[in-house]
Amino acid sequence: MPKTRKNSTRSRKSTSQKASRRHSRWKSAIWKVLLVCLTIFLGWCVYLDATVRDKFDGKRWQLPAQVFARPLEIYPGLALVKADLQAELAELGYERRTRADRPGTFAAGSYAVEIYSRGFQYADGAEKPRRIRVEFSGDKVSQLLDSGGRALTWARLEPVKIGGIYPAQQEDRILVNLDQLPDMLEKALIQVEDRHFYSHFGVSPQAIARATWANIRAGRVVQGGSTLTQQLVKNFYLTNEQSLWRKANEALMALILEFHYDKDEILEAYANEIYLGQAGARGIHGFGMASHFYFGKSVSDLTSDQIALLVAIVKGASYYDPRRHPERAKERRNLVLDQMAEANVISDSQANADKARRLNVIPKPRYSSSAYPAFMDVVKQQLTRDYREEDLQSEGLRVFTTLDPLLQAKAEKSLSDTIRQKEQTAINQGLQGAMITTAVSSGEILAVVGDRQANFSGFNRALLAKRQIGSLIKPFVMLTALKHSQKYTLASPLDDEPFMLKFENGDEWMPKNYDGESHGPVIMQEALARSLNLATARLGLEVGVPEVLETIRELGADVDVRPYPAVLLGALNLSPMEVTELYQNLISTGFRTPLRAIRAVTTSNGELLSRYSFDTEQVIDSGIAYIGQYGLFEVMRNGTGRSVYRTLPEDYYVGGKTGTTDDYRDSWFVGFNGQYLTTVWLGKDDNTSTSLTGSSGALAAWLKLYRQLPQVSFLPSAPESVEWAWVDQKNGLLSAEHCEGAVALPFLLDTVPEERAGCVDRGNILERWLRKWWNS
Amino acid sequence: MITKNMKLVPNPLVSRNCLALAVLLLIHGCTYSPIQEPARKPDPRVTDPSDAYPKEQPVEQPDTKTPTQRIGQPVTKPVEIDRERPSAAALQVLAQAEATARSGNYDQALLLLDRAQRISPQAGEVYLQMARVQYDQGSYNRAEQLCLKAIALSGKDPRFKKQSLQTLAIVRDAKGDSAGADAARKQAASL
User: Fold this and answer.
1) Is there a contact between A717 and B12 if contact means CB atoms under 8 Å apart?
2) Is A193 a catalytic site residue?
3) The domain spanning residue A194 has which CATH number?
C-alpha cells in the first residue's frame, strides 16, 4: 500500500507537475503569442506611423495648374459696352447690389457701373480689392474713377478661371492656409462636426459611445462618432470601406497623427482635403475650391449663410448638393445656422435672417465642365513646350492666358447660329466649323472654337482639321510677285485666259475660273479682289511655285509640299490655326509675330516662372507688305467680300479673303478690322460637298461676329517707301482722279506706271492748276 | 489702325472751303463724279452696330461676278492717319515700365510693356521701350526687330523716327553690326 501510496503520491506529484508544466507551457505559449501579436502590432504601428508621416510631411496633394482668362483691363477710351462689362462680372460671380460695398459686388446705373473688385495675385504682382466707377458714353468707357472720385487711367478685374490641368485622380482644389479661412468657418465646422476637437487626442470615446447608443436605439447607423482627425485620416489615407479593420486603422492613425502634429495643422489639412462636390469627372476638394465652385468667390469673402451651407455639405456632398437638392441642402444649412447660434458663432437674429435667405448658389461655373476645350488645347500645346506634364498636374501653377471670354462667347454663337442656318439646306446637313480670333497687333489668341458645339471636347478642328485652303492662297501668290517690285505692281495687267500645262508624265493641268468663264486682261488688284483662278495661276507660274511656298514659310506656315502648280490655287492643306498665323503675319506690314495663348506662368505663390512677351521679326519689306495687305481691302470693297458693306458702314475699313475648294468642300474666310483678325472654316468632317462658297458660308459667320464688335478700322500708316497714284482699273495705265474707271493704288516709289491712259491729258488746265494749288 | 474718333488727317476734298469746291465744280460742271469721294459720316465716332445698320441680308455667292455696283465705294486712297501716340493710360504704364526696368526687374517691365501695347497697339513708343528693355537684357536681335517695328510706326514724325534710328544704331553696335549701325546713324542724321 505504502508503495502504492508512494506510487500514488508520486503519481499525483507527477500529474500536478504535468499540469503545472502544461499550464506554464500554455502560459508561455500565450505570452509568446501575445509577444508575437505585440510585435506585429508594433510593427503595424511603425508601418502606419511611417505612412502617416510620409504623406503628411511630404507633398500632401497634387495641385492642378489653374488656368485663367485675360483680366479685363479698363481705361478711358476702351471700346466696351456696359452689357459686356456686366457679362464679365456675372462670369466672375459678382453680386449685384444697390451699392458696391464689399469685394465681389457691383452696382449698375444707366450709364455707369460701380465695382468693388476682389484682390488677386496677378502675374505682375498682387492687387488689393478696390472700388472703381466705370462711366460709359455710347460704346466706350468715358471715365474711370476711384472711390474718392479721382480720375484713374487704368484698372482691371481679376481674370475668370477657365480650367485646370488635372492629375489622373481628378481632384480639384485651391489650397488655403488656416489664416485665410474665416474664423467663423473654423468655429462652425468644429461646432457641427467635432465639438471636442481641441480637447481629444484623435479619437473621442465619448462621441463613439454617444453615437453607438444613438445607433442602437435607432436600429441603424444614424450618427457617426468620428472626430475631424478620423475623418481626415479616412479621406487622406484610407478607403470608404465599412469594416472593423478599417475603423481600427482609422483610430490608430488618428492617434498617430495627433501625436505628431498640432491641431492647427490637422485642421488646415482637413479644410483642404474634405470632399465637397463633383464637377463632371472631377471631385471638388477643400473649402478654397468649393467656395469658388458654389459661390464664385474666394473663401475669405464668404457670408455667414454661405459658410453655413459649406459646413452643411461636409456631411454628404452628393446628398446635400445645393444645385440638385436645394430643399434638402437648405434644411441642413438652417440646422447648421442654429448650431452656430447655439455656440455663439453668430447671433440669434443673424441666424434667423440667414435662414430666410435663399441658397444663392451660382450656376455651375464654365471651367468646371471644361467649357473651353478648344482653347485649352492650344494652351496645353504651348505649355508642354516648357513644362513637364507631371508638374502641370501637381505643382498648382497659375497660367495666365489670352482668352477673352466675352469674345469667345460671341464667336461660339456666331459660328453655331450660322451652321444651324446653313443646315436648312439638305446638302449641308452635318456641317461643322472652326473659328479663331486673334489681336491684330500682338498676336494674342483671344477665342478658339473647334466644334459647332463649342463645349464639346472632341476633335478640335481649329487645330487639327487640315483642309485645302483654296483661294486663301492668292494673296501670297500676289505678295510673292510684288517682291519683284520692278516687274509687278498691283496695277500689273494679268491675263485671265484659259491655258493648259502638260507634264512630262503626260498629265495635264487646266485650271478654270469659278464661273467657268475667262475675263481677259485684268489688273492684279482686280484678279485678287475677284479671286480669279486663271490670272492667279499664270502669275504664280511666272514667279514660280517654290518661291510662293517660300513666302508662305517666311510668314509662319511650316509647309512641306512638292511645288505642284495646283498649289497656286490652294491645293495646300492647312489647319485654321495655321491659316490664322499666316494672315496675322500677312497684315502686320512685313513683321512676323508668333501667335500666343499664354502671357505668363507663375508658381502657386505668384512667383513668375515664364513670361511670353510680344516678339516680332521683320521678314518682308514694309512697303511691299503694305501694298500686299492693301489688296485685301479691295476684296471687301469690290470683290468677293463686298456683301459685308450692305451691313457695315462705308467708312469702316475692313479687309479679308474668301476661300472655296472644289465641289464646295471647304468654305473659308479670313477677315480683320483694326483690332481683331478672325479665321472661319466651314465644311464636313467626311470631306463631302456642301453648297457653300467662302462668301456664302464662312463670311456669314464672320459678319455675325463683327457686327457685335467695336468698329475699329484697319488703317495702318503707309511706309515712306509707298506713294499713291491713280490708275485705270481696266489696263493699269497711269490715270487721274477725274478719269472714269480710275482707282487709287499704292506703289513703291518709282514703280508708278509711266504709260498714261488717254483721259489724263484731257483735263482742264485751269482745273489742274487749281487742284495742284489746293493739294499743296 | 485707329478708332474712328481719333484724329484723322482730313481729306482735302472735304475739308477745304466751299468756295474752292464751288469754283472747281463750276469749272468741271456735272462731269465730276461723286464716286471718287470717300463717304464720310459727319460724326466719325464708332457706332453701335446693333442699332445703326440695316438688318443682315442674305449673302450672295459672288466669287467672280463682275461688280455691277460699288457697294463699298471705289478704291480711293484710304484716310491717312497721323502717327498714333500712346494714350494717357498707356503713358502711365510706360512710365511704370521704365521705373521697373531701371530697378533691374526686366520681366515685370516687359509684362507692363505688353499691357501698354494692348492699350495703344500702334504707338511706336511702346515698341521702342520694349527694344530698350530687351537691349538691357542683352537680347540684341529682339531689340533690333523692335526698333524696326517702332520705325515702321513712326509715320510722318521725323523726331520719333530719328530717336528710333539712333536706338537702332546702338543696338546694332552692341550686336557687332557696325555697318548696320552706321546706316541707321546716317539715316537718322538725314532727318
Assistant:
1) no
2) yes
3) 1.10.3810.10
